[in-house]
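Incident log entry.

Two folding requests arrived from the same account within the same minute. Monitoring flagged them as a possible duplicate submission, but the sequences differ. Recording both here for audit purposes.

Request one:
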Amino acid sequence: MLCEHVFLAAAATDAALGRRNTEFQAAAGALDANSVDLSKAIGSVYGPDAEKAFLPLWRKHIGFFIDYTVGVATKDKAKQEKAVSDLVQYPKDFGAFMHSASPAIPANVVG
């Protein structure tokens, strides 16, 4: 599922940068469906609370990549810098999530 995520994210990014809106919408929809599948996989291992917490967190990082892509496409340096800052913070947030789901996983291993 993670390989599919990377492929779909790349396809959505390429379509967005190429201003191919129909293709972008299809790739973004498939990417979100993949995110839901990933959340269900997390839920199957760590339980329903982890599943519910995972999905918005996962979608958030996708939004950061979209923000960066839009910043590049529009030559908006401030948008790019904010997105990079958010992406740098994300592993820490994800590490905290993983630690809350499984305390045996130290938060700093991910972040």
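Request two (distinct sequence, not a duplicate):
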Amino acid sequence: MRFEISKVLDAIERRLSTDPALVGALVDVGEVLRAVDLDGGRPTYLPRLGAVVDALAVKLDDAAVPVYAIADKALLSSLELTSNEKMVLRRWADDGQIEVVASDPARRLVELAGITGLPVLSRHPLPVAMTMAPVPGLGGVVLIDRPGTAGPAQTAVLSRRWRCPDGEPVGIPTLLATGQPTCPRHGVALADEGPRPVSQAVTVWVGGTARTRFAVDALRPLVVGRSPAQGVMLGPWLDDESLQWISRAHVELTLAGNLLTVTDKSTNGTVVVRANGSRVELSRDQSELVGEADTVELHQGVELTHAGRRPSRAVSAGGGIMAEAPTIALRLPIRE
């Protein structure tokens, strides 16, 4: 069982991000891991977060969608967690995959929702535009929409880059305590390092299933291929035929303003499939703009889309993180 739990935690790790351009929702780790009614497992159980991430994937029909997770600093040393769970939480925090707050994670969720406009995965009544409440359902956790009231997203703070005096970059500062950009973990003023580059999220689809999301920004091109020296590696998801067809560095993506461009760098070529079904075939060093509803086809069944868009042969999100979980985490609710 220990090996299975480690696999679940590793799978959760791949679905965590503090980049608001990539994520689909905000979540408080502490609230979720204590929601024992979701699975009937331990009173405090970190893999429970995986069930909620899976539920978001089903809700958005995107098996690669990450979450922006926050955790109370006290949780990292909680006696309610196993030593392995605490070690994993600390690693996520140190690697910048979750945001750690000094106290009051619910207050921080409300602030993040106001800045980003993202929904919150929570059962608590929060003053945000949308919460999605995780509840037990047939076959696993489901999310129930609970619309709220909130003003328009205050995105101005996202246009700047911030750094904590300890040297770590801070994606989204807190403004609640002083009205000035402050580190949510340390409570100290942040240095403004200038404009944040514009970015767009892109989803990788293999065999109709979303595999991962990544961001392309305006600072530098990003290479996608079988196994590029730097960039997005597709190799682990490819079958033998795709491994033979797709080049080590297959395409280069660039962003200018809000316009995404793909440049072919491969041996076998790339196709841009327009929303109307027409196809633009690219040979080496040829470029093409990628429209919001277009698909970039590296090989049959291996595709790139703007995040939130689906290729024509996409399949419904299923399986997911908890497919590796011990059976105790898959209890069905009792039907009256």
